[in-house]
Write a structure and sequence with these properties.
The complex is a heterodimer. Chain A is mainly beta. Chain A contains no helices and twelve strands. In chain A, the strands form three sheets. In chain A, strands 2, 5, 6, 10, 11 and 12 form a six-stranded mixed beta sheet that branches. A four-stranded antiparallel beta sheet of chain A has the order 3-9-8-7, with no helix packed on it. In chain B, the strands form two sheets. In chain B, strands 2, 4, 5, 6, 9, 10 and 11 form a seven-stranded mixed beta sheet that branches. Chain B has a four-stranded antiparallel beta sheet with strand order 1-3-8-7, with no helix packed on it. Classes of the chains: A mainly beta, B mainly beta.
């Protein structure tokens, strides 16, 4: 079974639209970490956020916000007022206690295309 | 400061050849990771070093793959008898390594093409 599921393969929006990228995870551990990374066309993975399983507070950073809901095993990412520079592939990832937290398990990514 | 660096950025080789991919982690990071990313997929874990030792190599696909980190800093991923299926982007990441679940910072990757 997929541990991290990003069901949206590709999303296209027009600049200034809000967009939400979904992430659903599966783990047997009660302690784990969740991450979001951005991979622009240049290819380098850029860290966006890290969240531990005990902190369900939503987080906002500028135009980015994250909604963590343990009850539904989801960690969704919203970009408000999207910009062309947001075009990239976005990955959700999980690290679990039973692997010593040292192995990131990634979803298959969601490609976001923001057009002017 | 400088991020994770990887060399070469691109490598083209022929089937059956040996290749070495190099990773230079962020200064002061004791943990180092290798991942492989195939086209259209997320990165997949290969191996993790804490200091000089390979703490977890469970992701290495077979014994043609080997990695070292002799002085606890630079790491080299070695692939023997390359096959076309080894073509992918090989990503290196590092983290402080002091506690679990730390953020891993990634390098730009080495794009390997086996002809």
């Amino acid at each position: 079974a997929q541990k991290v599921t990003q069901a949206q393969t590709e999303i296209s929006v027009v600049e200034k639209e809000d967009v939400t990228l979904d992430c659903v995870y599966e783990t047997r551990d009660t302690t784990y970490y969740l991450f979001w990374y951005k991979q622009p066309p240049s290819g380098e993975l850029v860290f966006l956020i890290r969240r531990n399983s005990f902190d369900e507070q939503n987080e906002i950073s500028g135009r980015y916000s994250w909604n963590f809901q343990k009850s539904t095993s989801s960690f969704n990412f919203t970009i408000t007022a999207s910009q062309v520079v947001d075009s990239a592939v976005y990955f959700c990832a999980l690290s679990e206690r039973h692997t010593g937290f040292q192995k990131l398990v990634f979803g298959t990514g969601t490609r976001l295309l923001v057009s002017p | 400061g400088a991020g994770v660096s990887q060399t070469p950025s691109n490598k083209v080789t022929e089937k059956g050849k040996y290749v070495e991919l190099r990773c230079d982690p962020i200064s002061g990071h004791t943990a180092l990771y290798w991942y492989r990313q195939s086209l259209g997929q997320g990165p997949e874990f290969l191996i993790y070093f804490q200091g000089t030792g390979a703490a977890d190599d469970s992701g290495l696909p077979n014994d043609r793959f080997f990695a070292v980190r002799p002085e606890g800093s630079v790491s080299t991923l070695k692939i023997q008898r390359t096959e076309r299926g080894d073509s992918a982007v090989y990503l290196c990441a590092s983290s402080l390594g002091t506690t679990g679940g730390e953020t891993q910072y990634f390098g730009p990757g080495t794009r390997l093409l086996v002809l």
